[in-house]
Amino acid sequence: MSEPVAAIGANLSPDAAIVAALGQRSIVLIGMMGAGKSTVGRRLALRLRLPFVDADTEIEAAAAMSIPEIFQQHGEPHFRDGEARVISRLLAGGPLVLATGGGAYMRDSTRARIAAAGVSVWLKAEADVILRRVKRRADRPLLHTADPAGTIARLIGERHPFYQQSDITIDSRDVPHETIVDESIAALHAHLVGAPALLHPLSMDSRS
Questions:
Q1: Which of 161, 138, 168, 131 has its CA nearest to residue 69?
Q2: What is the mean pLDDT of the chain?
Q3: Number of folded domains in the chain?
Q4: Please, how many CA atoms are within 13 Å of residue 158, restricted to the half-sphere of its CB?
Q5: Which residues of the chain have pLDDT under 50?
Q6: Residue 188 belongs to a domain
Q7: Span 7-23, pLDDT tens digits
């Protein structure tokens, strides 16, 4: 870690030090469906006073159709091509907190773009947690199968080796969302500034 970043971090709250160290880079949340990327991402962006963008929402707006409709009408390869373009465009306009779709990080060019323009944070959720969170939702085209649990297990096997290349890993489990946000702040501070963040209300920027 360079001396200038460490020196800046010493004089700022953890939140402000993270933003200062990011510069024009973005925080990119990756992980399986149901890992909490959008929910945690919104809270993390609010904490850091950065814009939050959900890549799936941007894709739907660009295509003027839902993601299940894109899958049904054009297929997954077409969706992944559009997803890569949208993520690249969003990263060019950073800094922001970006939640990505579960399969986005599988593409080599997208991983390279995230590495160049962002800090990747893997929200790692276990299979039972994922299934419990997504089983009542109809907007997961990859789970439109006779065996959703088996599909999740297969996707975890395929995707985890790629997710493991992320800069930071956070255990996404059934605790208050603010707990995951606090852990993300601490990990981001350690990664970017080089020291653990001491997280308590008085250490944070005022959010009044």
A1: 138
A2: 85
A3: 1
A4: 13
A5: 1-3, 200-208
A6: yes
A7: 555 678 899 999 999 99
Residue 183 in any domain: the answer is: yes
| Cβ atoms 106, 114 nearer than 8 A | no
| C-beta of residue 25 within 8 angstroms of C-beta of residue 117 | yes
Q: What single-letter DSSP state applies at residue 64? A: T
Strand partners of residue 30: 122
Torsion of CA 123, 129, 130, 136, to 10 degrees: -140
- What token pair was written down for 192? 């970017």
Whether 95 contacts 52, CB under 8 Å: no
pLDDT digits (tens, 9 = 90+) for 142-172: 556 667 788 889 999 999 999 999 999 999 9
Quote the CA–CA distance of 60 and 53 in Å, as a whole number: 13
- Residue 170 has phi, psi (to 5 degrees) of -125, 135
Residue 163, domain extent: 3-196
